[in-house]
Amino acid sequence: MTTWHIITGEYPPAPGGVSDYSHAVAAGLAAAGDEVHVWCPDARGTRAEQSSVQVHAIAGSWTGPDLDRLDAALDAIPGEKRLLVQWVPHAYGRRSLNVAFCRRMRRRARGGDVLDLMIHEPGLGFREGSLKQDVAAAAHRLMLAILLSDARRVWVAIPAWVERLRPWTFGRRDLSFCWLPVPSTIPVAEMNGAVSRLKAEGLSRPDGVVVGHFGTYSRELRRELQGVLPNLLAALPTMQVQLLGRDSDVFAAQLRSAPGVPVARVRASGELSAEDLSCHLQACDLLLQPYPDGASSRRTTLMAALAHGVPVVTTIGRLSETFWTESDAIAAVPAGDLPAMARAVSELVRAPERRRTLASAARGAYQARFSLTHVIDALRTDSCGVC
User: Fold this and answer.
1) Sequence-separated (6 or more) residues with CB below 8 Å from residue 316
2) Which of 147, 317, 349, 371 is an S-S bond match for 335, by CB 3.0 to 4.6 Å?
3) The CATH classification of domain 194-370, taken from the options 3.40.50.2000, 3.90.660.10, 2.10.110.10, 3.30.390.10
4) pTM here?
5) Is the pLDDT of residue 348 over 90?
6) Could you tell me the fold of the domain covering 3-183+371-381?
7) 167-182 residue pLDDT tens
8) How many whole angstroms separate alpha carbon 22 and alpha carbon 311?
């Protein structure tokens, strides 16, 4: 039995993809028979119960005194310590510039702890914004260099991160970079007729086709959806839009205000429980999931669609893994190509048999490549999908 110490800047009830991921991995490792400790800040709200996981919500804001407290609590637990740090620089306080946190992890590794990293986001890139952002990007590279200097293994959410990380190992030849896809954080719920009822209640006509989107509605994404959905609603009288996720109701109001958009055919869920979100996903006939940097295995919204067997129109971009271009589990168009996106959705709205084929392929691809079982097996057996 391995004893895991998952160190994360986000954990339920705090919202966020890293929070949901850390919760799922902790539960999966514990269910497999390992001892699991989670070290995280406290957050307001009701913390999810995990009887088999010991949650230590003592990290505060990751200041010096917080790190001292974390060190002492870790030292009080006997046995070898395997640290699994969920790396997103902005999750560790100090406005994403917490060099002290990285130095503390390095010190623990040099003192005998095993340090593994799970890289969700390496950090900011250069020339992506202001001079201040470039300064932050430089600091993020310093932080990575500190962590990579004594890490045993680096797991990456997408292979594209490796080329950003490797220069900051300064020639270390013994450090492995391993691809570990991020699974869906929305379990597929058995709804016993609830999906059919939900869909029937929402349809404005019996032959309606529900085209959904699941996301957090960034500015760039809103711009793309607004460039596609009104025209599709005008061209396809059977189409209805279901917006899912945090701030979906805010975006729905913006979309309904566009000239000619039929208000009754645009619905939004707002923020839902995992079970209710699963029900809403299953009620969609198709999801439109554009990503400015492309579909990839770090996109939990895409993973949720695949896990639920919902046909997906998505985009291929600079961070997309090569297998997506050959996959029969998605309908893919180039990132940013709004006319191609609209054509793909339009064709699938009119082709129910094609949607069924995509749905079956999506479920198969998810189980073969991306499921939580796959992630837990890789961590416990140290099986490395080499990048």
Assistant:
1) 294, 295, 324, 325, 332, 333, 334, 335
2) 317
3) 3.40.50.2000
4) 0.91
5) yes
6) Rossmann fold (3.40.50)
7) 999 989 899 999 999 9
8) 27
